[in-house]
Design brief:
Structural class: alpha/beta
Strand order of the largest sheet: 1-4-5-6-7-8-9-10
Protein name: TatD related DNase
Binding site for a divalent metal cation 1: 28, 115, 226
Number of strands: 12
Helix content: 25-40%
Keywords: Hydrolase, Metal-binding, Nuclease
CATH architecture: Alpha-Beta Barrel
CATH topology: TIM Barrel
Order of helices and strands: EEEHEHEHHEHEHEHEHEEEHHH
Binding site for a divalent metal cation 2: 152, 177
Pfam families: TatD_DNase (PF01026)
Length: 319
């Protein structure tokens, strides 16, 4: 394996699968420590744990506190935005998010507001009007905390981009993660200053997806797994570019030396890097990883820009 350094910007460590629970059934022991060990060995050196609700954001912060290389987001996913009103006091709910974000910043762990945005594919969980109302509201969190936005956009590009543009002065930068949109959606996002696009296995499923990704400038891209979801499958158009593999076993035959079959995990961000390089015709994967690393530091770890990322771009490991 060529030496690369990567930051996985989206890992759902609060998901039950990392506790060994699948569809309510315990299949194996909780294994976050094992999963992390594999990630660090593969060249991942930071991970951002995703928060998608108030409770999940609390758990994400607790997990982030277990390792110096873990960080997290605080926010409410579009499909969960009913929680503001179901709490009985939306303002109090918002204040709880604000307090949690403040606490997390003081601990050096919270690096973004999110996951927030719009998801019109899953309106059965939350109507569009409620999604829009509380997406807009969460820009207040970013503004108050001076944080970037970790964003979700599915089947909602016109409304999403309109809301983002309207609030552009209230956040420093953002990433539209797990991007699966059209070339037109991509170009709308790229027209927003300081907006990056997060690519994972779901972004690389079809030949059309690869065409869209091919034209995302690498200076505006980040990579992620969104694990335990969004893995690169054997049926994915991008699979032909994958070079790194790990042994796998079914969850019922759990072996800590193997990844769990069909469960994505952070070490596999390496495959995303390989597919991006392959579909763009980039042979120097180390240089690609340095650019993506720099992008990620620019948005989420600006305090490290001078040392870590710039020396990486120069081809030297920081001391």
């Amino acid at each position: 394996m060529a030496t690369v350094r990567m930051i996985d910007i989206a890992v759902n460590f609060t998901d039950g699968m990392f506790k060994g629970i699948y569809n309510g059934k315990q299949c194996h022991v909780s294994d976050i420590a094992t999963v992390l060990s594999r990630a660090w060995t593969a060249g991942v050196d930071r991970i951002i744990v995703t928060g998608g609700s108030l409770e999940e954001s609390k758990e994400a912060l607790t997990i982030a506190e277990t390792d110096a290389r873990l960080f997290c987001t605080v926010g409410v996913h579009p499909t969960r935005c009913k929680e503001f009103e179901e709490s009985g006091d939306p303002d109090k709910h918002f204040q709880a998010l604000l307090s949690l974000a403040k606490e997390g910043i003081e601990k050096g762990k919270v690096v973004a507001i999110g996951e927030c945005g719009l998801d019109y594919d899953r309106l059965q969980f939350c109507p569009a009007e409620i999604q829009k109302k509380y997406f807009e509201k969460q820009f207040e969190l970013a503004h108050a905390m001076k944080l970037p936005m970790f964003l979700h956009m599915r089947a909602a590009a016109p409304d999403f981009c309109e809301i983002v543009e309207r609030n552009r002065s209230r956040f420093s930068a953002g990433v539209a993660h797990s991007f699966t949109g059209s070339a037109e959606d991509r170009d709308k996002l790229l027209s927003i200053s300081n907006m990056y696009i997060g690519v994972n296995g779901c972004s690389l499923k079809t030949a059309e997806n690869l065409d869209v990704v091919r034209s995302i400038p690498i200076e505006r891209m980040m990579i992620e797994t969104d694990s335990p979801y969004c893995g690169i499958k054997n049926t994915s158009a991008g699979i032909k570019f994958v070079k790194s593999t790990w042994p796998s076993k079914k969850k019922e035959k759990y072996d800590q030396e193997c990844i769990v079959k069909d469960r994505n995990e952070p070490c596999l961000v390496r495959q995303v890097l390989e597919v991006v390089a392959g579909c763009k015709g980039i042979s120097e994967i180390g240089q690609l990883s340095r650019t993506l690393y720099h992008n990620t530091c620019r948005v989420f770890f600006p305090q490290d820009l001078d040392s870590a990322a710039d020396s990486l771009l120069a081809g030297h490991d920081p001391q």
